[in-house]
Amino acid sequence: MKHWEVVIGIETHVQLSTASKIFSGSSTAFGAAPNLQANAVDIALPGVLPVLNKAAVECAIRFGLAVGGEVAAKSIFARKNYFYPDLPKGYQISQYELPVVRGGGLPIQFGENEKLISLTRAHLEEDAGKSLHEGLGPTAQGRSGIDLNRAGTPLLEIVSEPDMRSAVEAVAYARALHALVRWIGICDGNMQEGSFRCDANVSVRPAGEVRLGTRREIKNLNSFRFLQQAIDYEVQWQIATIEDGGSIEQATVLFDPASGETRAMRSKEDAHDYRYFPDPDLLPLIIDRQWVEQVRAGLPELPAARRERLIADCGLSAYDARVLTASLDLANYYEATVVAAGRKNAKICANWVMVDLAARLNREDREIGQSPVSATQLGGLIARIADGTISTSMARKVFDELCNSGHSSSADEIIARQGLQQISDDSALTALIDDLLAANPGMVAEFRSGKEKAFNALVGQVMKATRGQANPQRVSELLRRKLG
Amino acid sequence: MIEHSLADIAQALASRRISSVELTALYLDRIGRLDPQLNAFITVDRERSLAQARAADERLARGDTQPLTGIPIAHKDIFCAKDWRTTCGSKMLDNFVSPYDATVISRFQQAGAVLLGKTNMDEFAMGSSTETSFHGPTANPWALDRVPGGSSGGSAAAVAARLAPAATGTDTGGSIRQPAALCNLSGMKPTYGVVSRYGMIAFASSLDQAGPLARSAADCALLLNCMAGFDERDSTSLDRPREDFARELTAAAGGRPLAGLRIGLPEQFFGEGCSPDVMQLIEAAIAEYRQLGAETVPLSLPNMGLSVAAYYVIAPAEASSNLARFDGVRYGYRAPAYDDLTDMYCKTRAQGFGAEVKRRILIGTYVLSHGYYDAYYLQAQRIRRLIADDFAEAFRQCDVVLGPTSPSTAFRLGEKAADPVQMYLSDIYTIAVNLAGLPAMSIPCGFAGGLPAGLQLIGNYFTEARLLDIAHRYQQVTDWHRQCPAGHA
After folding, report:
1. Higher pLDDT, A477 or A96
2. Is B313 within 8 Å of chain A by CB?
3. Using one digit for the tens of pLDDT, what is the confidence trace for B264-298?
4. How far is B75 from B118, CA to CA, in rounded Å?
5. Boundaries of each Amidase domain copy (chain B) (predicted)?
6. Domain A426-483 carries which CATH code?
7. Which CATH number fits the domain that encloses residue B64?
8. Interface probe with B: pick from A21, A48, A272, most Cβ of B within 10 Å
9. I want to staple B56 with a disulfide (CB 3.0 to 4.6 A). Which of A2, A462, A463, B20 is the partner?
C-alpha cells in the first residue's frame, strides 16, 4: 500500500467584535429578534450606500501586526456577485486583488511538535444574513424566512497556506488562531454563535509527490471537533477513492456531524463565477504608517513574547507558560495573582491557577473572566500558604470560602474569622504533645519498640486535637525530640 | 409667474405677493391639464404637495426662509422620497414606497422647497429618450411626436412645458445635458462627488451624478446651491468647503465681460457626426462668445472616439451588479407564480425588467465574467484614464471646452428605439465627461426646424461657478433660453 501525504489549508471567517456593522451603523449584537438590527443599508434598499467602519479596519491592522504580516498601504474593496436570499445586495463587499493584510505566520503546537504555518492573506468583508427554514409558525409551512441581523457584520477572512499535514495540525492551527484573535481583542471567539468558522481545503498526494492533489473544500466548520472529524473522514474517503481507481473532482462539500461524513454540495462545473470588480461605492482603503503605529502601540504583548517572559521572570516551565497564555485574560489573571502573592511565589501561583482554580471554573463552566475568586484574593491566599500561616489543606477550605464569598472577603479575613491559622507556636504545641504522651503510654511504648506507624498515629492525634490547624511539620519535629 | 426666474419667484413669495400654496396649486393645475399629453410625471400627489406648501408658507410667514422656500420642484423618480412611490421608471419598483429620503430630497426639504411630483425617466436611467420607461414614453413639449431626450426626459419635459419651475435630474452619460438640449433648457452635471448619491437609485455608481434642470444658468446655480455638499453617507462625496455657485452671476451685463477667457474647440466635436443645422447654431454661439471677449483655441481630445465603447463596458458592468438587489425577495416586484428559488429569481427579473435593462445586465455580466474581465473591463478602465488625461491636457490650453451637446435635435418617438447602437451614439458628445468626472452644462443655443439645440460647456474639476457664469453671460445677450413651446405659455 502506498503512503499518502495529506495537505490542508484553512480559510477562517472571524467575526470582528465592533459595536456596529462594517458598512452601516446597525448594532452587531447577537441574539436580537430577526431583522431588528437591519437598517436601510443592511437590507439593501434602492439607493443606499456603504460607509466603511474604521473600527473594523483597526481590527485587521491589529491582526496583521500580530502575525507579522504586511499591512497594505492601499487595499481595495471588491464586489463578489452571486444571488442568494440572505445576500441582500446580490453581492458581498469583500476584498479580492488587494487585501488589507498579506503574509505573516502563526506558530502552532501539537504534542511535542512546533511548526510555523504561513498565512497567505487576510481580508475584510461583510457577513451575509441567515435563511431560516424552521420555527416560522404554522402559517409559514413550506416557506423560508430571512434574518438580516447578521448581514453586514464585519468579517476578517484569514487564509493559510496549504502547510498542514494532518487533521491534528489543522486543529492546532485553528486553536492557535482562535486564541490569537481573542488575545488581540478582535473577536469574541464564540464558535456556537458563529464568530469563528473554518473552511478546510483538503487534498492527498502520494508521499514524495511535489504537485498538489485535487482539493475538496469542507465548508463552515464551527467546532474544533467537527474540524477534526470532517478532515479525518475526508482524508480516508479521498485515499479510498483513489486506491479504488477513482479520481478526486474539485468540489465544495459539507460535513454532516450526525453521520460523520462529508458530502458534495457543488462541483467545479457549477462553481460560481463571482465576477469580482472594485466596488465603485467605496474609495480605496488607505492606511498610513501613523495609523499602523498607533495601533501597534495599543497592542497587548503577544502570546509568544508573554510566554518567554513568564519562563524568564516567573521560572515557569514551557508547558506551564503555554497553559497560562492560552488567553489574554488567563495570562493577566495569573500575573495579577503573582503580584498579590509576591514574585517568589510565582510557581505556587501557577499551580493554583492551573489546578485548583481551573478545576473550579471547569466544574462551574465559567471562563477566567467570570472567576468566582479574584486574582487579588487568590494571591492573598497563596501568600498565607507561603508564609506558613495556613496549611495547604486549610487553604483549600479558604479557597472554597473565597469562591462563595462573592469577591467580598480576603483570605486573611476568612482565616481570622474562622480561626484557621496554623498553630506553629512551640509552647502551645509542646503543651499539647505533653498531654497526649501522658494520656497514651501504650502508643509511646509501641513507637519505642520500633513501630514507626505509632508515630504517625501520634501526629494524627495532635492534628485532630487542633482540628487540623497544627503545623504538621512542626508537630513531627517536636514529637521526635520528645520521644528522642 | 411661470416665466419668472427662481430668484423672482422667491422674491414674490418673500413679499407675500403669492403664497406657496397658490404657486403649488397653479403648477398642479397645469400638470392636471397639460401632462396627459406629455406624460412627464409618474407620481403626483396633490394633497401631499399642498401640505408641504402650507408648511412652507408658515416658514415664509416666520421669516425662516432660504432661497428655495416655498418653490415647487419636480424630482426625477430615481430619488427616494419618504412615503412617495419611487419607481425608477421600472415595473420592478412600481409598488415601492420609499421609507427614507435621498440626501438630495432631504436637502430640498430642509430648504423648504415643495416636492411637486416624481418625473418620468428611462427605466433605471438606461436610455436617451425616456422611451424605456415602464410608464410609457414622455413627449417633447416642442413637438409631441418627438422624444424629450433621456434619461431625465420627464424632468426636462416638465420644466420646458412650465409644469414645474425647475427639476432635478441625474446624468450618467448625458442624462441631464441631452434632454436639456432637446427641450431648450439649462442643465448641469456637476463634478463627480459634488452632489451626494445617497438615496439616488444607482445605475453606474462611478458615473452617476445628480444635477439641476432649469430655464436658465442662474436658476441652475440656485438649485445646485441646495443640492451640493458633503454627505458622510456617500463615501464618494467630496468634503469641500461650501461654496455659493451663484457668486459670479451678479455682475451687470455689457462690455466684454469674458475678455481673457480661452474657449477650447476640440476637433472631435466639430467633425462628422453632428447634423449641419445643429453645427450652424454652435458656430453662431461661438461667434457670440467672441463678441463677449472670449478667444478660441483649437485642440484635440484624441481618445474621445473610444468613449462610447468604454462607457458601454463600464456602465453595464456596474449596473449588472447594482441591479442584483432587485430579486423579488425583500421589496418590489415578485413574479406571482414560481417553482423554486431559482425560478423565482428568473421569473421576477424576466417580468420586472424591460428589454434595455436586460440588455445592459447581460452585457455587464459578460464583461465581468472570468476570462473576459481583462479584455473588457480593465481595458475600458484604461481608456477612461486616457480620456481623463486628454481633458487634463486640454485644460492646460483652455479654460472651458465647448461643443454640441447632442448630434441632432429631438428625434421622433420610436425612431431609434429598435436600434440600440444609434441610441447609444446620441450621447457621443456627453459620455466622455462622465468618464472623466468633469462638470458640464448644456444651454439653449437656437432652433433648427423649430426644435431646440444645446450648447455644451465642459469645465475643469470644481469649476461649476465659472461654468455657470460663462453660461449666464451668454444668456444675458441671447434669449433662446426664454423661448417657450407653443401651447404651454
Report:
1. A96
2. no
3. 999 999 988 899 999 999 999 999 999 999 999 99
4. 5
5. 22-468
6. 1.10.10.410
7. 3.90.1300.10
8. A48
9. B20
